[in-house]
Write a structure and sequence with these properties.
The protein is an alpha+beta fold and about 280 residues long. Helix content is about 40%, strand content about 25%. It has helices at about 1-15, 105-130, 135-160, 170-190, 195-205, 205-225; strands at about 35-40, 50-55, 60-80, 85-105, 245-250, 250-260. Strands 1, 2, 3, 4, 5 and 6 form a 6-stranded mixed sheet that branches. A hairpin with a 3-residue loop joins strand 3 and strand 4.
Length: about 280
C-alpha cells in the first residue's frame, strides 16, 4: 500500500510538472480578424460614409477594412428601433483587405415580415398552452405578452416603410388584432396568481384574435416575398429612433455605429446681405 501511494504521488508530480499542451491552431494566426474604417453609404464606391440617409433610400452599402483575417465568420446585424433585427449579413475574410456588403430595403422588408409572422405565431402557441395548463398558466401568459410586444415593435417598423397598397390591409388587420391581444393578455396578467381557471379562460379568449392575426401576418409574408424594390423603413423624426449596425466576429461583439433614415428638409435662410445706405437718406 505504501509503494502504491508513492507511485501515485510520483505520477501526480510528473503530471503537474508537464507543460500544458498547446491548443491546436494557437499562435499568431489564432487571433481574430480586426475590422476598421466601418462606414455606410448609398453607393458602393463612395469616398466617405454618412449616418443620415433620406427616406427614399433603397439600399445601403457597408464598407470596411479588415486585417489578420483567418476566415472566421464576421456578421453585420442591423437592429431597428425597438430592438427589432432588420438585417443580418455574414462573410468570411482572410488576410488583409477591404470589403463592401449591401443592405437592401427589399431584403429588410422580407426579414421583418417573417419576424412579424414568427412573433404572432409564437404568441398564439403560448396562449394556447396557457389555456390548456392546469398548473402555471401565468408563465405562458408572460411569454405570450413578450411575443405580442415583439410583434408590435416589428409592425411599427414595417409601418414606417413605403409599402404598396397590397400590404396595407393585412398590416392594418395585424395591428388591430395585436392591440386587442395586448389588452387581453394585460388583463389576464393582472388576475391574482391563484386564479388559475380565470387565467385559462382569459387565454382562451385570445384564440379568435390570434387566428385572425396569424392569417393576416401570413398574408404580409406572402405579399413581401416577391418584392424586388423597397425603401428602408424610416426612423421618423425622433432622433432617439435609430438603427444600430453591430459587428460580431465569431459571435463576439466588435464594432458598431448608429444611423438614421429620415425625411430630409431644405433649410432656406434669409438674405443677410446688408445694403449700404448713405447717411441722411
Amino acid at each position: 500500500m505504501k509503494s502504491l501511494r508513492i507511485a501515485l504521488l510520483a505520477l501526480g508530480l510528473t503530471l503537474t510538472c508537464q507543460p500544458a499542451a498547446a491548443r491546436p491552431g494557437a499562435g499568431p494566426d489564432d487571433e481574430k480578424v480586426r475590422i476598421s474604417d466601418l462606414r455606410l453609404a448609398r453607393t458602393p464606391d463612395a469616398a466617405q460614409g454618412s449616418v443620415i440617409f433620406p427616406e427614399d433610400t433603397r439600399e445601403l452599402f457597408v464598407s470596411f477594412a479588415y486585417a489578420g483575417g483567418t476566415s472566421e465568420p464576421v456578421t453585420f446585424i442591423v437592429i431597428g428601433p425597438g430592438g427589432v433585427e432588420a438585417a443580418r449579413l455574414t462573410g468570411r475574410y482572410r488576410g488583409d483587405g477591404t470589403a463592401t456588403l449591401k443592405i437592401s430595403g427589399a431584403d429588410m422588408l422580407r426579414r421583418l415580415s417573417q419576424a412579424l409572422d414568427e412573433a404572432v405565431r409564437a404568441g398564439q402557441a403560448n396562449a394556447r398552452d396557457a389555456a390548456a395548463q392546469a398548473v402555471g398558466p401565468r408563465e405562458y401568459l408572460l411569454t405570450t405578452q413578450y411575443h405580442v410586444h415583439r410583434a408590435i415593435q416589428t409592425l411599427d417598423l414595417l409601418n414606417h416603410a413605403q409599402l404598396g397598397p397590397d400590404l396595407d390591409p393585412p398590416l392594418r388587420l395585424v395591428g388591430d388584432r395585436l392591440s386587442v391581444l395586448s389588452a387581453l393578455v394585460g388583463d389576464a396578467l393582472r388576475l391574482p396568481p391563484d386564479e388559475i381557471q380565470a387565467m385559462r379562460a382569459a387565454a382562451q379568449k385570445m384564440s379568435a384574435p390570434f387566428a385572425q392575426a396569424v392569417g393576416a401576418s401570413g398574408s404580409v409574408v406572402t405579399g413581401a416575398t416577391p418584392v424586388k424594390d423597397a425603401v428602408l423603413p424610416s426612423t421618423g423624426t425622433d432622433a432617439r429612433r435609430a438603427y444600430t449596425l453591430n459587428v460580431e466576429i465569431s459571435g463576439d461583439p466588435s464594432n458598431s455605429l448608429e444611423f438614421w433614415v429620415q425625411r430630409t428638409t431644405k433649410l432656406y435662410l434669409p438674405n443677410t446681405r446688408l445694403r449700404h445706405v448713405e447717411p441722411g437718406r
